[in-house]
Every structure is written in structure tokens, then in C-alpha cells.
Amino acid sequence: MELEYVLPEEIEKRSMEIIERELGDRKLADDIKPVVMRAIHTTADFDYYYNMCFSENVIEHAVNILKRGAVIVTDTNMAKSGINKKALERLGCSAVCFMADSDVAERAKINGTTRAIASVDKASELKKPVIYAVGNAPTALIRLCEHIKNGTFIPELVIGVPVGFVNVVQSKEMIMRTGVPYIVARGRKGGSNVAAAICNALLYMTK
């Protein structure tokens, strides 16, 4: 097998061409295609063609929210670091992660919860439109569901792609029943890299 010589600036373009070719007859609607393609590009996992779920008109809604200067809250610093900073700056948006904050640690200790839950509670105090991107902690999705049910915090969009085995599948199904706009990777697969990839896909669609 011979190596293929590709210029650094052409690698992503070439990768997308390979994904398109390997998808073959499996087609994607124009609005969701950039999101699914970027999830596949990030993971080399074509299962995302099948497991990505989108609420109605969510892409148009997400783009509009980003143009209003939304705050993207992530449940890991890894996801936050993977979101394109120039794209955020261009739109007047920001990305934050509260997991390592001392006040979050204190809240979690006092209330006997995880930091992911305490982070959701802190995000509920933000005064800007919020996109909540979960790539690791199903407890964050469950806490979001509780806030939404109680009317105490309703994000503009929830990206639900935690990875794992305990309450992961269930939490994703729960968030899809809240009525809040969502992008969810159904099943066990996901991760911080996927959460960041979805955020980037949405940011790039605002051009």
C-alpha cells in the first residue's frame, strides 16, 4: 500500500471526499450534512450516519442563536479546547467550561452531586443564550432535563453526545423528549471530540 502525498492544507478536503465516496448511496439532507460529516471525520466512524438525531429545524435555529452571540457551555475542558476560537470571536460568541471552577467544586461537595450537575446549575445563571454541549457526563443531560421540566433553565440548544455505558442511552432519550432543540448521537457513542466537532460544524455554517 503506497502513501498518498497530500499537502497539509488539503488533508481535510481530501478526507471529506473519502467520506463522501464511502457513504456511497447513503444520502444526507443538506442542512444536517455538515454536522454528520464532521462527526464522521472526527471519529472515522460511519455509525454517526445512522445515530445522529436532530430536532426539527434545529440547524437553522442553532445558526441564528450563534449569530446572536451565544455562550457554548461544555462539560469538559477538552471539548471547550476543540472549539474553533476564531469562529467564536467572529460571531461574538464564547465557549466556557465550569468543571474546574472552585465554586462548582464547592457546590458539588455541599449538595452531594457531581461537578457536572453543579456546572449545569451554574450555567443556569448565565444571561446570554446558551448552547449546552455534553460529550462526557450523562448526569449533565439528566440535570438539564430537570431544569427544563421545572422551567428554571431552558438552553437554546442541547448537544447530547456523552459516551459510555451508565445512563448514557437513557439520558439521551430523555433530552429528546423535553421539547428543547437538540442534536443527539443516539446510543453509547459520542465523546468530547464529537461535541466539539458538532459545535464547529455549526459555527462554520454561519459564514
How would you characterize the overall build of this protein?
With 207 residues, the chain is of the alpha/beta class. It has one domain (49-204): Rossmann fold (3-Layer(aba) Sandwich). The chain is built from 11 helices and 6 strands. The protein has helices at residues 11-23, 33-43, 48-51, 58-67, 77-82, 85-91, 102-111, 115-123, 138-150, 168-175, 192-204, and strands at 52-54, 71-74, 94-97, 130-134, 157-160, 182-185. A 6-stranded mixed sheet has the order 1-6-5-4-2-3, with helices on both faces. Helix 1 (11-23) packs across helix 2 (33-43), helix 2 (33-43) runs antiparallel to helix 11 (192-204) and helix 7 crosses helix 8.
Short recap of the structure:
The protein has 207 residues and is an alpha/beta fold.
Just give the CATH class. Answer: Alpha Beta
**Terminal residue distance:** 39 Å
- Name of the CATH homologous superfamily: Cobalamin biosynthesis CobH/CbiC, precorrin-8X methylmutase
Number of domains: 1
Low-pLDDT ranges? none
The mean pLDDT is: 96
Total strands: the figure is 6
Net shape: globular
Structural class, judged by helices and strands?
alpha/beta
Instruction: Write the CATH architecture name.
Output: 3-Layer(aba) Sandwich
How many helices?
11
* Helix content bin: 40-55%
Q: What is the fold named in CATH at topology level? A: Rossmann fold
Largest sheet: 6 strands, mixed
Rg, Cα atoms, Å: 17 Å
Q: What is the succession of H and E elements?
A: HHHEHEHHEHHEHEHEH
As a percent range, the share of strand residues is: 5-15%
Strand order of the largest sheet: 1-6-5-4-2-3
